[in-house]
């Protein structure tokens, strides 16, 4: 749970620092350098955490059931008898994680995937004034699919359809925050 809190806090602070830095730099050139530096740091972080810091292990696991984690979590929280207590514990609590990619529970992983791609949507709006929402969402989905395919190719974790969905959702939230910021700013 610590990782979730730290990452969320880092994204929130970063999203406040970006506009603050743009206000400090008066010249457009300096603002672009600042934004591209911040975006490069973000891109390097995503590359590191999704690929480079992982140890290869075989066999790779694939999870292509859409919204599986959400379905199980809602069944567990709702008290439905369709899911066993062991599966509920493995999905909701990190001490018995059945996916075993990280120490986080799958619900925490869903949240982390959403939070990790919020800056992607925000930066896409800031760095490309001509970008429209569907192109940003498509770019977020393509980057996410590329990461998942690289993880599968190099045995660096589980390849999940839900990760692509959550990352794309994070991109959409980031784009929405950018649109909110652009209305307040101007």
Quick overview:
With about 190 residues, the chain is an all-alpha fold.
Explain how this protein is built.
Mean pLDDT is 81; it is low at 94-102. It contains eight helices and two strands, in the order H-H-E-H-H-H-H-H-E-H. It has 186 residues and is mainly alpha-helical. The chain has a two-stranded parallel ribbon. The chain has one domain.
Poorly predicted ranges:
94-102
Sequence of secondary-structure elements: HHEHHHHHEH
Q: What class would the helix/strand composition place it in?
A: mainly alpha
Q: What is the arithmetic mean of pLDDT?
A: 81
Largest sheet: 2 strands, parallel
Q: What is the count of β-strands?
A: 2
Q: Which SSEs are present, and which pair or pack?
A:
Layout: H1 2-24, H2 28-52, E1 62-63, H3 68-77, H4 85-92, H5 106-116, H6 118-127, H7 133-153, E2 159-160, H8 161-185
Parallel strand pairs: 1-2
